[in-house]
Amino acid sequence: MDNPFLEIDALSKRYPSPGGQDLTVFEEVSFDINKGEFVCIIGHSGCGKSTIMNVLAGLDTATSGAVTMDGKEVVGPSLDRGVVFQNYSLLPWRSALKNVTFGVRARHPDWSKQQVLDHSYKYLEMVGLSGGAEHRKPSQLSGGMRQRVSIARAFAIQPKLLLLDEPFGALDALTRGTIQDELIRIWSGSEQTVFMITHDVDEAILLADRILLMTNGPYARVAESVVIDIPRPRNRAEIIHDQGYYKIRNHLVEFLALRSKVLAEEHPDDGGPMKPRRPETVRPALATEDAVSDEGLSSPRMEPELVSLVR
Amino acid sequence: MSSLAARALFLSGLILVVSLGVWELSTPAVKAAGEMTEYEKLMGGADQEARVPPPSQVLLRAWEELSDPFYDNGPNDKGIGIQVGYSLFRVLTGYFLAAMIAIPVGFLIGMSPLMYRAFDPFIQVLRPISPLAWMPLALFIIKDSEASSIFVIFICSIWPMLINTAFGVAGVRKDWVNVARTHELGSLRTALTVILPAAAPTIVTGMRISIGIAWLVIVAAEMLVGGTGVGYYVWNEWNNLDLTSVIFSILVIGVVGMLLDAAFAQVQRAVRYQE
Fold it and tell me: What is the pLDDT of residue A294?
């Protein structure tokens, strides 16, 4: 089998502390992402999700471990990896349109002005920003509109990997829902590989092919990879009627409420048993009723190779 | 609110009229020559003590001067327009030389914590020195009074620009720099398309402070150096005991300073952005 598109191998981050004992935020974080896959990562604050994302973006460096994308090691930021930040990170002195052309021009320095404009408009229209609104400055746009611009900018550079750092965290619930639907729509029309941080279990189920669950920090790690066996296309109204929805949801909530803490305490720091190289794969939607009520531990596990075959 | 603006304008006019009125009335008119006693004639018609001229005389002088601002009757008698022109030339030359150094160096200091620490002690020691204290040294080294006054302007306007540029550049939000990094912009393009516009409001504020200080200092510098310029004009009229012209030139200095400041306020408005 070919190597996966994105490989994260034994990533760890330690901060030296004056007391002598280093602070280990996470360690031995390993997972893969396949091409075209939408993967969400969930975990409590302080488990280092954002740091992992920044390492993937090339904005931060891990203490040890490696990230390989498309056979090449990730060193420093690149246009191959687009980032949407939680606080939008639009340049406030540029209009919405100019923020998008900023990205497009960086991506295609050889394009003519008209080409850059056409391409930018295409993506602005995709997120529903046109008819004059694209000439407004970010400060004149609502939070939802700003995040749309940010998403348009990231999609417009057509990166190999799109990184979303809690993109809807600052939005109200109604706006969040609309933009989630828009994001699925845009994503479905592309072959875009997406890695997204979220705090919202429902959002993760709606969007993701797979959800990575992290244990609590310090010494956080990716404990499980939960496959979302819900057929696409999905939308918010219908997904809740899917048979597997609540099984997955319960599994995730239970993990976040209880097991993320238990597993963190179990952490064998003193030469315990070898940790698995990859998080175990869990498919709550396919489990029988009994198995789910039994803490999800007996849910069917599959090797990563098998999972990608199933997909 | 327009009514607020109108009321403010009315009040300003009232303050002007009342203060000018009080000033006018407190200066008794000079008696005609025929009514003078012998003693008064000996004293040249002067009062016991010299009086500040009334505003009406100042306005009359202003009218005379402003109706022909560019006459040139030799070194000691030039129109106010020429004098202001000399001063502006010196201020702008020294100021732009300072900007050419302060803004790039400020960028360097702002972007590199190492440079910031390395430059900081020098800036802290040099900044509080009164610009005029440099004058003797400048005259000795440069041996030219014109260039020396430009140097004094240079040295006084460099600090606010340098410090504000460094401060503005260092304070650019990390997110925006990250946007530049994820878009693979080189250092020069990052500096020009992200850091410069982000720091521009702070930089222009520094430039505005600098031009204000430069205009304050040029008057004093020209009083010392002499020859031409509005500062020299004030001092020359004082030596002529022509207080009317002194008051008139003081007003001119104020108005030109206000215009310079307004120009930079305009620039400030142009580069301002709302987060």
Answer: 44
Q: Is residue B41 domain-shared with residue B60, that is, in the same domain? A: no
With CA atoms as reference, the chain A residue closest to B198 would be: A93
Together in a domain, B1 and B118: no
User: What residue in A sits closest to B193 (Cα-Cα)?
Assistant: A102
**Three-state SS for B239?**
helix
B24, B60: one domain: no
Same domain, B110 and B5: no
Report yes or no: A189 at the B interface, CB cutoff 8 Å: no
Q: What is the pLDDT of residue A300?
A: 46
Mean pLDDT, residues A80-108: 93
* Per-residue model confidence (pLDDT) at position B49: 61
Asked if residue A145 belongs to a domain, the reply is no
Q: Are A127 and A187 in contact (CB under 8 A)?
A: no
pLDDT digits (tens, 9 = 90+) for A123-167: 999 888 888 889 999 999 998 899 999 999 999 999 999 999 998
DSSP string, B108-162: HHHH-HHHHHHHHHHHHHHTTS-GGGGHHHHHHHH--HHHHHHHHHHHHHHHHHH
Q: Tens digit of pLDDT for each residue in B227-259? A: 899 999 999 999 988 999 999 999 999 999 999
Name the residue range of residue A208's domain: 6-80+162-169+199-310
- A306 in B contact zone (CB under 8 Å): no
Indicate the SS3 state at residue A251.
helix
Q: Which helix (H) or strand (E) holds A14?
A: strand A6-15
Q: Do B184 and A78 touch (CB under 8 A)?
A: yes
Q: Are residues B214 and B258 in the same domain?
A: yes
The verdict on B44 and B134 lying in the same domain is no
> ipTM higher than 0.90?
no
Q: Identify whether residues B202 and B221 lie together within a single domain.
A: yes
Boundaries of domain holding B37? 1-51
B197–A107 CB contact, under 8 Å: no
Question: Is B224 a domain residue?
Answer: yes
Residue B142: pLDDT over 60: yes
